[in-house]
Hints:
By secondary structure, the protein is mainly alpha-helical. The protein has one domain. It has helices at residues 2-16, 22-42, 59-80, 86-109, 121-140, 142-159; strands at 49-51, 113-115.
Amino acid sequence: MILFTNFAFLAAVLLTGAGRQWKTYYVTYTFVSLCNLLYNLLCQNHLTWSFHPELLINHKIADLLNTFVLLPSITILYLYYYPSRKLTKFFYYFGWVIGLTLLESIWFMYGRITYDRGWSILWSFGFYLVMFYVIKLHQTNLKKALLLSLGSVIFLILVFKIPLWD
């Protein structure tokens, strides 16, 4: 299921032509991938969610796939089709947030992801609210995107009591 999701999003990037704009979004999808790698580094012994993929791959492999295939694909698609009209932007943004929350809910129902340390699908929903806001902000105001990301990381480390030195 996780493998299928990665390949489905990658196929969408390639088949829709959005992938032709990869250079335009390179810095942003690299930033998103680096944030995911940072999560895995800081939380490696205290994960708030873990993947339980199928087909002989473990959490690390699944997360690396998500880091280098799924997250860049999502970022490219999100930015490539980002609308210009204000009302449309609102629905587009929430469509992506709700869509990824539903996708994660399906993974949870099928045991492909589990939560720990108090994380839940509601936290994921909040995370996606910030993630998609930061993805767009990163394109328009790098400093604000970096500050919001840093603040979010500090907030999550404190709330979920992630020990950084153990």
